[in-house]
């Protein structure tokens, strides 16, 4: 039976397991689905690859900044904990609210939906929606049972994922028939880097990189967090940047852009072009299997935010309850319920843009908080300091802010839903305060 008293587990997440969680959170839905949307507005091979380089630069700068915050304030909860301390508890609550309702539930749903679509492309008789639901429920059962089993599962399936992608990139480079696309920049290509199409496409790319901060949600469960967390964040992000640039180069180098345009299953399309329909179907099945890792990692990490919120807020105390194994089962079930709601009611592109907007907003505020924390609390121990400060956080803020402005301008519906989510969170915060007062 669950108990409200946290049971201390002797098992701690290692550097390897933490890096696996970061890689698994990042390598998933976005890189296997978003190129088809990007080529609708951008035809330049150079500009398309630069999307992934710029997205990786944003993620690396963010990881450097989060490394300092995680080492200085080593507690699970991620942005919820940082923003509560830096700005105000209301801002932290909104961040936790977004993470609980959107930050993990929506990306988990997106990964499950993509998994279902890839699997249905290989086995048309499958119902993709039912498969998505079944995978989410099965992985929830695993992670709700044992932290050690969930962690080991994560390391194994992430290692398989990285190996498969490296083999795919290598095979693609050796066997591809080069397409009529140039990766050498022309004068017109530089103008595309400042275009609205590039900024909107960067939303998809930023979403593909969005798991770079995953480990900070598990700070309290990481072995030697002050030492390991910065290393986990940087190692995981650097590995994924190399994989993403290589993978998208192979997609573009091997497959005509008209075949990719508007396609969700770009990995399946590229594999069919490279190796023929039979091997393409096999690769589609493999990618569907790889997406299990992404769904698994988000189910593992997300509930820890809700757990920490429940520890701090009396109105949410029930969500802080953990099992005898120290697992926040109730918080996990809440996230799973929201995930299934997205799977059953949302469309892929709208869910992606909606999630991308609100998540970018709070990572922007968190990195901005690095400057504020240094001014307000210069005495705070900082075992790790952001490399390249203040340039690295300024680069992150400039690129993220530019993307947010274009989302607000060109995707008002998704932005409005994101802002409505924040308004509902603010109402929930003040209602919770009244409950505590009474």
Automatic annotation (TrEMBL):
TM helices/strands, residue ranges: 15-40, 46-69, 90-114, 126-144, 156-177, 197-220, 232-253, 282-306, 327-345, 351-375, 387-409, 415-432
Pfam families, A to Z: AA_permease_2 (PF13520)
Domain of life the protein comes from: Bacteria
Main location group: membrane
Membrane topology: Multi-pass membrane protein
Protein name: Amino acid/polyamine/organocation transporter, APC superfamily
Gene3D superfamilies hit by this protein: Amino acid/polyamine transporter I (1.20.1740.10)
Native organism taxonomy: Bacteria, Pseudomonadati, Bacteroidota, Cytophagia, Cytophagales
GO cellular component: membrane
Organism: Hymenobacter daecheongensis DSM 21074
């Amino acid at each position: 039976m669950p108990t409200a008293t946290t049971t201390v587990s002797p098992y701690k997440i290692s550097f390897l397991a933490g890096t696996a969680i970061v890689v698994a959170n990042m390598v998933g839905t976005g890189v296997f689905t978003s190129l088809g949307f990007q080529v609708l507005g951008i035809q330049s091979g150079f500009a398309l690859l630069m999307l992934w380089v710029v997205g990786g630069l944003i993620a690396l700068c963010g990881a450097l900044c989060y490394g300092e915050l995680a080492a200085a304030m080593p507690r699970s909860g991620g942005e919820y904990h940082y923003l509560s301390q830096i700005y105000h508890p209301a801002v932290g609550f909104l961040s936790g609210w977004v993470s609980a309702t959107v930050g993990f539930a929506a990306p988990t749903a997106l990964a499950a939906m993509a998994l279902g679509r890839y699997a249905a492309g290989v086995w048309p008789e499958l119902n993709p929606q039912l498969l998505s639901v079944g995978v989410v429920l099965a992985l929830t059962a695993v992670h709700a049972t044992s932290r050690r089993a969930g962690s080991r599962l994560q390391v194994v399936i992430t290692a398989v994922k990285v190996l498969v992608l490296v083999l795919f990139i290598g095979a693609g480079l050796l066997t591809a028939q080069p397409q009529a696309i140039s990766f050498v920049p022309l004068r017109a290509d530089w103008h595309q880097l400042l275009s609205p199409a590039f900024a909107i496409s960067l939303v998809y790319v930023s979403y593909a990189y969005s798991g770079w901060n995953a480990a900070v949600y598990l700070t309290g469960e990481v072995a030697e967090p002050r030492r390991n967390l910065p290393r986990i964040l940087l190692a995981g992000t650097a590995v994924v940047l190399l994989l993403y640039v290589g993978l998208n180069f192979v997609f573009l180098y091997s497959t005509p852009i008209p075949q990719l345009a508007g396609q969700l299953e770009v990995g399946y399309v590229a594999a069919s072009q490279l190796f023929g329909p039979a091997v393409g179907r096999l690769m589609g099945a493999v990618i569907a299997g790889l997406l299990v890792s992404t769904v698994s990692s988000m189910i593992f990490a997300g509930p820890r935010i809700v757990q920490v919120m429940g520890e701090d807020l009396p109105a949410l105390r029930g969500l802080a309850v953990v099992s005898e194994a120290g697992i926040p089962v109730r918080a996990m079930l809440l996230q799973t319920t929201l995930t299934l709601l997205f799977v059953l009611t949302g469309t892929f592109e709208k869910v992606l843009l909606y999630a991308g907007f609100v998540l970018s907003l709070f990572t922007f505020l968190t990195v901005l908080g690095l400057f504020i924390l240094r001014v307000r609390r210069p005495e705070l121990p900082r075992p790790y300091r952001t490399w390249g400060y203040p340039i690295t956080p300024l680069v992150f803020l400039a690129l993220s802010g530019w993307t947010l402005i274009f989302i607000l301008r060109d995707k008002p519906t998704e932005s409005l839903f994101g802002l409505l989510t924040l308004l509902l969170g603010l109402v929930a915060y003040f209602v919770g305060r009244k409950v505590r007062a009474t």
